[in-house]
Amino acid sequence: MHNPVAERDDLAFDFGATALGRSFHYDWTNYAVSPLDHIAQRYGERGDPTPILLLVEDLLRLRDSDLSGGEINLLWCATDIALGAPVTAGKERDWLQEVGSFVVPLAKSRGASTAACSTYPECVPDGTSPAAAVGRPGKALGPSDHRWAEGLRAFVLRQVMRRATARQRSTRVSRG
Questions:
Q1: What is the pLDDT of residues 124-147, one digit of tens each?
Q2: Strands, E, within 27-166: which ranges?
Q3: Which residues touch 97 (CB under 8 Å, ≥6 apart)?
Q4: How far apart are CA 106 and CA 43, in angstroms?
């Protein structure tokens, strides 16, 4: 089980909604009675609010996006390498709201402000926004970063489509 106090890999490798989706291994139901219980155990009772605030930011961005429910579901499924995450199909924005409503009080109990739990920095294409600067202090994104980002988006889209196709096949086989 992930111990957020002892292991800071949650920020070194992955964070936010993708880290949450990846944390739902097949065995999560062995130690958690519900998805929210799993989330509570993942983030622990105390500590730095940053991992939770990164999750909240992702949840808010997804909630406020122009993505359809199906697209949000596809992204959520793509985070789930172990295929153990709760199914959100048909209730994607409800799931985002449920998780957000659960983790915001947790972040606030760790000292996060109301503003930090309800707003997020604007992303701008030139890489000069506060959101783009996270992890790269003093460095704006350049043309090579944008080419890299486009390549990454194409790779992620291919992975999402492969995973969604595999999940559909496994669902058809299990219903079979």
A1: 555 555 444 444 444 454 555 555
A2: none
A3: 63
A4: 9
